[in-house]
Amino acid sequence: MTPARPWSRRMEGAVAVAFWFTLGLLMSAREISRSGPGEPIAWNAIAEMMAEIGLWALLTPAVFWLVRRAPAERGAWVSRIALQVVAGLAIAFVVEYITRGVFRPLLRGPVPLDRQWTAAGSFVRLRMLDEVVVYLAILAAGYARTAMFQVQERRAEAERLRSERAQLVADRARLEAQLAEARLSALRMQLNPHFLFNTLNAVSALVEHDPAGVRTMIARLSSLLRRVLDSDGSVQEMPLREEADFLRDYLDVQQIRLQDRLRVEESWEPGTLAALVPPLILQPLVENAVGHGISQISDRVGTVRLSASRVGATLVLRVEDDGPGLPPEAKSSRLGVGLANTRARLDALYGGAASLTLSPASGGGVVAEVVIPYRSVGSPEARAPLQNGAAEQAPARVQAGSLEAPLADEPLSQVWP
Question: Which domain holds residue 254?
Answer without folding.
Answer: 205-416
